Amino acid sequence: MDSSKTSILVSGALIAGISITLVVQTLLKCQKKSGPGFFKRLCCSNSSTELEQLPPPWLRVKDGEEIKVGVEGLIGETPLVLIRSLSRETKCRILAKVEFLNPGGSTKDRVGKGLIKEAEGSGLLVPHQGYTVYEGTVGSTGISLAMICRARGYNCHIVMPDDQAEEKYSALRALGATVEKVRPASIVDPGHFVNVARARAAANEKGFFANQFENLANFTTHQTTTGREILRQTGGNIDAFVAGAGTGGTLSGVAHCLKERSNNIIIALADPQGSGLYHKVEHGTLYTPEQSEGSRRRHQVDTVVEGVGMTRLTDNLLAGFDHIDMATSVTDQQAVSMSRFLMANDGFFVGSSSAVNCVAAVRLAKKLGPGSTVVTLLCDSGSRHGTKFWSDSALETNFNLTSAIPTSLDFVGDF
Ligand SMILES: Cc1ncc(COP(=O)(O)O)c(C=O)c1O
Asked: What distances in angstroms separate CA 155 from CA 33, 158, 198, 301, 354, one per listed residue?
């Protein structure tokens, strides 16, 4: 070999050596920044772990509307609507975030996305690698998770009480989720839907328990999305925010965000009948003795309303509990009457928790007086409640409730 060939070979080897060292150093730096799952994600993932990828250049339309990427891109940024009938009757601005316009049909899409995004970020979930997301839910969170799992390449296993509206089970099955129904039980019972979901995840080495009740990604999602959107959409001109609590993530997260802007914004809890939270906010104890968790073996919250009401304090509720200024309790009949009133006067076809929110919003507006602005949420649509809350015969037969359309808001009562 002549000397010029040798020197080419030597310099080539030197350059290759330097390049390999640089690549290894960069990877080690990235791992340090990105946490324990970095190498696994780098090697195993066949798509980016970021839920919000930048649109590829061909999706950027010059001077056009922003194009969303995937079903995850459609979540959040919901419109804020003025509810005409309620605003006219109270001489206030009653505004609602139209959460049923999320792609999975409820406010829970935000939480499903937040929980999965955080798990991917910390390496607990890797797309398209046979992972299974487990959750205990009354339905809405399950539907949101099932939808996002499809888009991200995960299996989804949902554990639900067996007394929820039939529509939710069918939606979950249509989205390819495994649905496991359990008898309603106390949270101290291993058969409670949350405990069953946790156990199933623990038994699967590629299982992830989403844990919407205690995982604070729920609270932070609402703080950084729902709360900030409300501030932006109202320009900060808001006197009060009112909502129910199912996990407490919405109320706590939004409360944190709004109170940071102004301590004068009132945060109110709307609680359905049978829930212990009203009692906790107003009187300091979670339950009347007969409501004590564990003493009642069957329904913890006896109401036709689905999704809100609890007889325990979750980490997500506690995260913002000190910001809750007041609470009001809404009966099943008042919720049903509000849903029929909104349908007849405004064309809004909403689910039960939205109706509870609107009863509380009207009460609060009356308490604050004309000219005030009260914001709430329309959490999901009535179409998810056709066999229960929106079935006149089921309401009459099973719950002894009337679905007659009210001619005024007199049924609402006072705060
Ligand atoms: C339809 C519906 N509305 C409202 C809520 C309450 O939201 P959060 O869990 O943030 O308290 C839920 C919770 O599951 C729900 O399913």
From this structure: 29, 10, 15, 30, 30
Q: Is 385 in the pocket of ligand 1 (CB under 6 A)?
A: no
Query: From the CA of 246, how far away is ligand 1's center (Å)?
Result: 5
Token pair belonging to 301: 């919250």
pLDDT in tens, 285-343: 886 555 554 444 334 457 899 999 998 999 999 999 999 999 999 999 999 999 999 99
List 5, 29, 62, 108, catalytic entry: 108
pTM for the full model? 0.85
Strand order in the sheet with 240-243: 80-82, 93-98, 373-378, 240-243, 266-272, 326-330
Encode pLDDT of 43-74 as tens digits: 334 444 455 555 555 566 667 777 888 999 99
Q: What is the dihedral of CA 346, 86, 101, 108, to 10 degrees?
A: -140
The residue assigned the tokens 């928790």 is 353
- According to DSSP, the residues that pair with 175 across neighbouring strands are none
Can 108 be counted among the known catalytic residues? yes
